[in-house]
Amino acid sequence: MLLLAFDTATPAVTAALHDGERVLAESTVIDARRHGELLVPAVDRVLSTAGRALADVTGVVVGVGPGPYTGLRVGLVTAASFGDALGVPVHGVCTLDGLAWAAGEAGLEGPFTVATDARRKEVYWACYDGPAVRVTEPAVNRPADLPADVLALPAVGAGAALYPDAFTDRRPDPAHQSAGSLGALAAHRLAAGEAFAPALPLYLRRPDAQVPAGYKAVLPT
Amino acid sequence: MADEPLVLGIETSCDETGVGIVRGHTLLADAVASSVDEHARYGGVVPEVASRAHLEAMVPTIQRALKQAGVSAGDLDGIAVTAGPGLAGALLVGVSAAKAYAYALGKPLYGVNHLASHICVDQLEHGALPEPTMALLVSGGHSSLLLAPDITGDVRPLGATIDDAAGEAFDKVARVLGLGFPGGPAIDRHARDGDPAAIAFPRGLTGGRDPLYDFSFSGLKTAVARWVEARRRDGRDVPVADVAASFQEAVVDVLTRKAIRACKDNGVDHLMIGGGVAANSRLRSLALERCEGAGIRLRVPRPGLCTDNGAMVAALGAEMVARGRASSTFDLPADSSLPVTEVSVPGHTHDHVHEAARDNLHG
Ligand SMILES: [Zn+2]
Fold this sequence. Notes:
The structure holds 2 protein chains of 2 kinds. Chain A is an alpha/beta fold. Chain A contains 6 helices and 9 strands, in the order E-E-E-H-E-H-E-H-E-E-E-H-E-H-H. A 5-stranded mixed beta sheet of chain A has the order 3-2-1-4-5, sandwiched between helices. A 4-stranded mixed beta sheet of chain A has the order 8-7-6-9. The N and C termini of chain A lie far apart (72 Å). Chain B is α/β, with parallel strands linked by helices. Chain B has 2 domains: 6-121 and 309-362, ATPase, nucleotide binding domain (Nucleotidyltransferase, domain 5, 2-Layer Sandwich); 130-301, ATPase, nucleotide binding domain (Nucleotidyltransferase, domain 5), CATH 3.30.420.40. Helices cover 45% and strands 18% of the residues of chain B. The model of chain B is unreliable at 350-359 (pLDDT under 50). The chains are: A alpha/beta, B alpha/beta. The interface between A and B is large, with 43 and 51 residues. Bound molecules: zinc ion. Zinc ion binds at residues 114, 118, 139, 141, 275, 308 of chain B.
């Protein structure tokens, strides 16, 4: 097994190779504005570092968000294109699940919350019962609007760090999404025979678009 | 001509997901998925709606094009993609897909200019472009007069609109007349039953001291709106066909007049017209009439190749391969305001990623 994992749904542009046992190589760059420029070079770098060929990859793992859309789409269209060009399956994994798995790797146990920055004073969030079990659907809300018991849980992710008044029990690790952790989670799911989400974006918001309010007259009325 | 370059082109700068495949000057496939219907109720293209549609349509449209062309992805000599100008988020979907396919297949990547592609597509219709080429590009996003001594490396802007694009004026006037979006085809249809001389609408930037090759359509659009509103205010019927025909005549009169002037001034004996507005039947007929009068050969691709499509990107990519132009690196950015003078976007760094791609692919 050789999984190529990447995620562009957060400010991290992260790519990794996972052989089913361990992470062979990982590249993570934090640059929220250049996902499109950095992703394929990052993939190239992890292949070089691991000394493996793209043709050896048996599956692509991609973070499906939720996350800001422009960056998110870079990962998803890249995954779909790799999957088609290489003839390998594409496994969609919720980006928050990757962070939860990384939190477990960092030693966090029991129930906790993962929150990332959704901009517009909102966070993308979900609750977990341990690193592999998500217990709520991913959602987007203002931190102050979350239930008190959710806010009281230990919390990881940039969304928690951004709103310390709301998330009172913040944990520092992981600070950012890691494709190594995403790949490790996918390997765990494959070994357990679990199904994957389709590699479709979790936008959680409708597009901003106003139906114009009729035609505006030019002549004074 | 199996030794001519086989190139796949991807275009996602606006609301069409276009994938074309060409071999040299021969069109093999032209697959398009449009999200135009999703934008109609907003009266214009909504960038986020377009970007979402591109993501959904990207891989299926590539698969459809390969099937249509009857070639396998491994046979390609290169993958070309619109790097700009266009909607940033929309461009990024196409650029990312092009990179992934090029990298995975071990093929060179060519990030090219959307406007130069609009010109180059005519090679699929009328064979090699003369050099230099004079081009008039008119669409909802652009109105430009371009002189192209070398379509793969030297495109010079002579003039452009200083306000609305020509296609935008069509959309806005169609809205004044209640004809829906997109406006171009509706105006064209109604104008056929109208009198183009019925109303004397203004011709922007045609005075003796105005810039020779620039355009302005904002004043015309306002003049049409004023005329129609005054008519409605007086409780009289609006003669839609006459308004459409007179407006359309004002637009194509200025476009063709300036284009022919540019040809004469620069000693170019042919004119290429591209972009969505080139599908307008009156623009085609008036351009033909005036070109014949001036001894200029007119080249206009069929309407399907004038609007945004992947074949035009593939056509420019194939020309780049044929002329041995530098390919792009895998850190190619999508540039929403890519100047027309940048026909392609070679890497800003050494081409090491592409070399590495070959190693990693075959290693
Ligand atoms: Zn165009």
